[in-house]
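I have a small job for you when you get a moment. Would you make up a two-line entry for one protein for me to read? No commentary is needed, just the two lines. Write everything out right here, beneath this request.
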Amino acid sequence: MPTHRPLGKTGLAITPLGLGGHVFGWTVDEATSWAILDRFVDEGFNLIDTADIYGRFWMDVPGLSESIIGRWLKRSGRRSSVLLATKVGGLMGPAQSGLSAQHILASVEGSLLRLGVEQIDLYQSHLDDTAIPPLSLLMPSAPVARVRPPSTRFGSLIPPTPRGSGNP
């Protein structure tokens, strides 16, 4: 069985290998996706990564990977055995992309619905959004209550500005 390691200061413990769900529903059908997920967890691994846009470009079904994982979670009853990581920011449809607070909140709700869970363990930005000031991402205008709260300060996630760059 793989060793679980702390994920920074989040309080989460992850295995050294995560499973990416990008191909679920695209090059891997649902039954095979479920078999892969079963085997992955049977072998002691726990981090399952997906995104709201997986399925959008190849199958024109936004959230297809999340939906397949959600149906697997419901069938298998293995929610407590896995950490769910998903992403926001990609093009989901007309005027449905980026990292605005409005889009993030709508995307969280969509991901929770497709995954069939009450909480996302690790929520990430899939793409940069140069129209949104980076600090505004760290101070959302509305709480995202159903994403596991970090146990570390957000400010520690901002990389230091190189000296001489002209930025404070």
Remarks:
- The two ends are 47 Å apart (CA to CA).
- Residues 101-115 form the longest helix (15 residues).
